[in-house]
């Protein structure tokens, strides 16, 4: 895992040095409470992800208008959008995020390898509701002071999705003040996906934090399985971004429950 994580951290430092997060304008965030909308949703709650590339998949979709994609996802029933802002390996951009924020009302997650308060400042300016932190970065000492970054986010009116992959990472994540705990079904070392990861981690879980299952979700059956495992919501990117009919793909997954 260290080689992949180290590369991701290096990319973020490069993006910071290159001024990628120097945001000039300030936009308002959504007025919708995502966690409340998830709790009250009778169907599957999806956070759908706009990403054109990834280390695991390479090019996922030809780069096109991110707003058009966002609107198709919302029409399909997505409760929130995750927007990649990391330019290296993911072909993301703060510009994509800003364009979407100016035109949609639902909550937005800034999806990046967050290692510095500069990125959190950018999230606030862009009107993000949530930003991602990855527990493994802190457990492997690539980044220090996870509590400091979470507190800084909260003080700036942002909420945090804290992602874990192993039971040890999950146990550490639950102890923090992060708002939503993500379980990534992808092993960042091998890049292999196993939906059983969510099941294994949530066995005997008794806490009340909201749980988001991430990666490898392709079908209504996957959504049902993960819901039965205890997941409250689902982050789905690649399978939707590869679809020729994004709205219909989202709708099918939303209506799995």
Secondary structure elements and pairings:
Blueprint: H1 2-17, H2 34-39, E1 46-50, E2 53-54, E3 58-59, H3 66-76, E4 80-84, H4 94-101, E5 108-111, H5 117-126, E6 130-134, H6 135-139, H7 146-155, E7 159-164, H8 167-174, E8 180-184, H9 196-202, E9 210-214, H10 220-229, E10 233-236, H11 238-241, H12 246-254
Parallel strand pairs: 1-4, 1-10, 4-5, 5-6, 6-7, 7-8, 8-9, 9-10
Antiparallel strand pairs: 2-3
Task: Please describe what this structure looks like.
The chain has an eight-stranded parallel beta barrel with strand order 1-4-5-6-7-8-9-10, surrounded by seven helices. Helices cover 40% and strands 17% of the residues. Helix 3 (66-76) runs parallel beside helix 12 (246-254). The chain has 257 residues and is of the alpha/beta class. Strand 5, helix 5 (117-126) and strand 6 form a beta-alpha-beta unit. The longest helix has 16 residues, at 2-17. It has a single domain (2-254), classed as TIM Barrel (Alpha-Beta Barrel). The protein has twelve helices and ten strands. It has helices at 2-17, 34-39, 66-76, 94-101, 117-126, 135-139, 146-155, 167-174, 196-202, 220-229, 238-241, 246-254; strands at residues 46-50, 53-54, 58-59, 80-84, 108-111, 130-134, 159-164, 180-184, 210-214, 233-236.
